[in-house]
Amino acid sequence: MISDTLRSMQLAMKLSHPTRFVVRRSKRGCRWVSAQCIPIAIFGVASFCAGVASIARADLPIFTESAVERGVDYVVADGSFGGLGQYGCGVLLCDLDNDGDDDLMGTGATTPSIALYANDGAGQFTSVTASSGITSHTQVSGIVAADYDGDGDLDIFVTRWLQSAVLYRNNGGLHFTNVTVTAGLGGNVGAGAGCSFGDFDADGDLDLAIANRTGTLGNTLRNRFYRNNGQGTFTEMSAALGVDDGGASFQCLLQDLDRDGDCDLYVSTDKGTPTTFTNRYFRNVGGAFVSEPANGASIAIDSMGVFAGDVDMNGFVDIYCANVATGHALLLTDDAQTYVRAEFMAGVAGQSTGWGTAIFDPDNDGDQDIFLCSMLTAPDYLWMNESGFPFVDRSAACGLGDGIDSYCLATSDVDRDGDVDLLVQPHLAKLRLYMNNAPQKNRSIRFKVHGFGQNTHAVGALIDIESNGKTILREVMAGSCYKSQSSYIVHGGLGRASVASRVVVRWPRVGTEWKRRVLTNLPAGYEWPVYPTEQLGDADHDGVVDADDIVDFESCVAAAFLPPCAIFDFDGDSDVDELDRRAIGTRLCDLDGNGVVGASDLSKLLASWGTETHDLTGDGIVGADDMSILLANW
Description:
4-stranded antiparallel beta sheet, 42 strands, 32% strand
């Protein structure tokens, strides 16, 4: 299933661009070059720093629209909802059948209003809507995927515009059942928009935040927040948590903005004014949301889509909000405590009304770029980082400048060739699937982070990818951008590096425990599975390390290190060797589960003599050979 090589053919273009300012972020919230620094204006005035450098334009990714030829023929008829200032129906790209590739969902057609397409592993799609159990619904607005019940597959939550939201439980095999009422999510008849899942209370399961555009046609349903009870049901508690905003909210993010192991809450609010409703930043402090109206992130704009990521790559998560043509908002931070607006200085203010947006790396050069959907006939933006700020719009040169009226988007490497493709949802037109041909010289690396307990897909996990002196920050997210769901597979561009020198993975906190693994020298060009330490060695995922796992382990010893062997790399050094043999031997023989092999384990083995219980060799009976293995691992 894992592709061993990147693309065999890609289009690389070597062009030059005009002289630009080369700028970096200082600890004082300034932009600087050489020795001169001028503070940024807080509310969007461009800043200038002394010193310029002439640089060559990087090779570009080339996108080709291929939806119909890849099996996705879906016309989005809905999405303006009566011209009430609200637009867009959500899209989805993620693995719904657990076969290793990302499937596709579109919403907003006349019939069916929700469509499901299965991916064959190479980016070719087949409609399975008719057999999916998902029925048509009017006024579909947003979509998000998460394993709310902890059974190992991704379920679907759908918001609707002034209609009841719907939860579909995944039964496996791309078949779903409507469980809205039994899960306790009935009654969401608001102006539903973008949603997000995350574990706010560190109890190991996924909670749900819903953005409602309160006030639409007199509808008074405010933003909702549902605590997961851990038994497949939810309890509504937005008022108790103080997050029942009554503004015209379009999207909420449950994301670890300060990277301390729990999810914070950020709310994007339309029609913002300084004296009424603004964007809201709620920091998670021990499972309680604390509003921070003065930290610079609670801006008053016509905020629609929102995405959080490390735009300037200084190790802290920035926030980018779509706005009307007066300028989209880039909120930069160098301490995760305060934010400053920098969109004009960064060159990403734009001149059209924007909706969905994403921070990602389409050219695999290791830095961050920004894509933004524009409404009506204005072209979408693809702002490329070509050597720091200001970014440069390369949408036309990259094949994304067609001026289609677009709103929602999702990202995924749908054909698994090592670069990020785009699914764009327009209005009164067919879904657009833009396939990416990133520069061939650049490499990438991908990660599938395995969760534990109820959070099986590791929502909220933080991944830091180090290569060429850069650190790429990523997070596993359930719901982002604008009403949509992107891939759970984490992607990082490495430029010309052949390995990621160091990768740090942190699972979200559960209770007081914050699990962490460090991996080194991982080869580029692969999708690497990352397991919590307690799952290592269990190749067949049956919950124990046994003789069958030892057979698989031996096939990886001293062999070329490939993704199927990652589950045996106990020390994370990108090989399977004698040190790992000791570790899996301990797992095999640690019968009492205390982490070491000793007298208690021997007692358990002797008590099982002549039976199948604690059979270490796989021959079906405990005997002398099993004792020899245990003593060798004492």
